[in-house]
Amino acid sequence: MSNRISTDEVAHVARLARLQLTQGELERFTEQLGDVLEHAADIEALDLDGVTPMAHPLPLANVARPDTVRPSLDRDEVLSQAPAVEDGRFKVPKILGEEL
Amino acid sequence: MSESDLPEGWELVVGLEVHVELATNTKLFCSCPNMFGDEANTNVCPTCLGLPGSLPVVNEQAVHFAMVLGRALGCTVQPSVFARKNYFYPDMPKDYQVSQYDLPTNGEGALELPDGYVVGIERAHIEEDTGKSTHVGGDGRISGADYSLVDYNRAGVPLVEVVSRPNMHTIEHAKAYVSELRDILLATGVSDAKMEEGSMRVDANVSVRPTGSTELRTRCEIKNVNSIRSMGRAIDYEAHRHIDLYNNNDAPRQETRHWDEANGRTRPGRSKEDADDYRYFAEPDLLPLDPTAAEIAAIDEAMPALPQQRRRALAEAAGLVPADVALVVERNQDELALAALAAGAGGAGVVKHLINNLADGAGQLTPEAFAGLVSMETRGDLSSTQAKTVLAELVANGGQPADVAAGLGFEAMDTSELEILVDGLIADNPDEWGRFCEGDKKIQGFFVGQIMKATKGQADGKVVNQLLASRASSS
Ligand SMILES: [Zn+2]
Predict the structure, then answer these.
(1) Counting CB atoms within 10 angstroms of each CB, which of B16, B144, B182, B472 has the fewest?
(2) The pLDDT value given to residue A100
(3) Strands B158-164 and B10-21
(4) Which residue has the higher pLDDT, B472 or B30?
(5) DSSP B119
(6) B271-280, B290-299, B338-347 — which one is most confidently predicted on average?
(7) How far apart are CA B330 and CA B314, in angstroms?
(8) How far is Cα of residue B455 from the mean position of the Cα atoms in its chain?
(9) Ligand 1 centroid to residue B48 C-alpha, Å
(10) ipTM value of the model?
(11) Which residues contact B131 (CB under 8 A, 6 or more apart)?
(12) Which residues in chain A are contacts of B151 at CB distance < 8 A?
């Protein structure tokens, strides 16, 4: 097993992603993520001067659409999918966090 | 409003992050309308609601506007990549915001203020706006709210975030920066830049340091400033708060704070745990942007005259410095000024009248009439008070300055008549004249005032002063 990532770090990342992991999962994912990082380290060890970093696996860029309005969804239909609605808006639980 | 300088020994350090909503028809990644003030949740679709299976496609006009703004700020327009900024907050239904991270569309640039000070631009990247939440219950603030209501009309609206270097050291420069950026946005048509509607939003990073030091101390990010004036007050308050802390052997904590306009203070936001751990990664659903050199050259070619260039052009034509004409350009009166100058008027007179007497617009005033008026005043045919009166008439009803002046009975005073009046006044007031000749400046007003009274204000003050001076030197 590689030492490239600790179970504490994996637990931290899981918490950020709102994932609840069992102790067994935590250990398994720590090992798997360690392997991924090991692979990245292998690539990092190569001489990559002059190789442009890949931004996307498809060899395409600048795929854009014209700035033309198309119809939006029907509001009643949209809101009918929400668990709670008030005043034409989505009603969400009290937000804990930064005020906007 | 207190915008005092900081106490002796302290220097202000300000960097500004300005979010600008782009004036596109549609959102950044979907074809919903980009429209302020519509009924809640009427401009939404699967993409901007973050529904599973939806895919973003970038708006070409938004990318174009972003590059135009970048070039207007002298930025390097470079190949760029969208990235996901991950956080859980109901204003972003996907649970991530699409932004740009290590490869923004616009790299380093600079913005020159009217007084010539240059503020560095670190980057200007493209990102999508968030939805708008309203907190219900409690005191309307998030901490006391019972629940929140979310409108996603704004979610996905295209933004450019312009990030300055922390190299503003006075409140005046911070205010001038925002004002200049707003003028650039309006000149290029990239945004309507309305702070009160939120299409231009400013966050100020504020810290202080001992004068002469180059360190960057702990900064606080001030949000919720809704006008340039509020921003100035917020920066002033925050800088003094930091200094008080340091003076009490304490120090500020790095945090986001909110400006409370009513109470004139900043208060801490409730900071999210791990708030800065956004785990950015390249957005796999979008392709990179890679503008061609021809595209960038075309943007430069089509760039309208920017405020800085307009100030320089007018200052040069008027024989003044750019800071002198900043207000004229800000009010979009430089075209009138240049036309009046071309018609033969003197620069100082044109700029003086534009700033002092034409703030509310030029109405019926033609450049030729304006030039004629300034020339009459320069020649001494009209006193400055008379010129102001004639100008007001030209603005209200048009016409030619000579006709209007004649109609108002403003005949140029013959200098020989003035000489007689001056000599009479000197003879009648020997004591006062003695004081004048000894260099008592206060008594000068007495003589000028008496002449004005005798001529019903028609004498040219400058000529009177010259006469008095020449009499004094020969007496
Ligand atoms: Zn949409």
Answers:
(1) B144
(2) 38
(3) antiparallel
(4) B30
(5) E
(6) B290-299
(7) 12
(8) 44
(9) 4
(10) 0.89
(11) B90, B91, B92, B93, B150, B151, B152, B153, B154, B155
(12) 88-90
Taking contacts as CB-CB distances below 8 angstroms, the residues of chain A near B44 are 72-73, 75, 78
Most confident of B89-98, B173-182, B380-389: B173-182
Q: HSE (CB half, 13 Å, CA atoms) of B182?
A: 20
CATH number of A7-44: 1.10.20.60
Rounded to the nearest angstrom, the minimum Cα separation between A8 and chain B is 15
Q: A78 contacts in B (CB within 8 Å)?
A: 41, 44, 49
* C-alpha distance across the termini of chain B, in Å: 52
Binary contact (A99, B86; C-beta < 8 A): no
For testing contact with chain A, the best of B148, B152, B220, B292 (most A CBs within 10 A): B148
Max Cα distance, chain B (Å): 98
Distances (CA, A) of B444 to B424, B438, B450, B458, B471: 16, 11, 10, 18, 13
In angstroms, rounded to a whole number, what is the distance separating the alpha carbons of residues A38 and A18? Answer: 25
Of A55, A94, A96, the CB nearest to B146: A94
Is the domain spanning B415-473 CATH 1.10.10? The answer is yes
In degrees to the nearest 10, what's the CA dihedral of B197, B198, B201, B203? 100
Q: Where are the alpha helices (DSSP H) in B307-414?
A: 307-318, 322-330, 334-342, 347-357, 367-379, 384-397, 401-407
- Sign of the torsion angle spanned by Cα atoms B170, B175, B180, B182: positive
Return all residues near B23 (Cβ < 8 A) that are at least 6 apart.
B65, B189, B190, B191, B192
CA–CA distance, B237 with B225 (Å, rounded to integer): 13
Where in chain A are the domains? 7-44
Collect all residues from A whose CB is shorter than 8 A from any CB in B: 12-13, 15-18, 55-56, 58, 60-70, 72-73, 75, 78-79, 86-100
- Of B170, B163, B161, B62, give the one whose Cα is nearest residue B111: B163
Other C-beta atoms closer than 10 Å to the C-beta of B110 total 14
- Enumerate the domain spans of chain B: 3-301, 305-407, 415-473
Contact B307, B314 (CB under 8 A): no
Burial of A60 (0-12, 13-18, 19+ CB in 10 A): exposed
**Interchain contact, A61 vs B42, CB within 8 Å:** no
**A25 Rama class: left (phi>0) / alpha (psi -120 to 50) / beta:** alpha
At residue A55, the pLDDT reads: 84
- Helical (H) or strand (E) element with B61: helix B60-72
Q: On the CB side of B16, how many CA atoms lie within 13 Å of its CA?
A: 31
CA of B194 to the centre of ligand 1 (A): 23
A40-49, A58-67, B186-195, B463-472: the lowest-pLDDT one: B463-472
Sign of CA dihedral B176, B181, B185, B187: positive
Residue A62 exposed, middle or buried by CB count within 10 Å (0-12, 13-18, 19+): middle
B285-340 pLDDT tens trace: 999 999 999 999 999 999 999 999 999 999 999 999 999 999 999 999 999 999 99
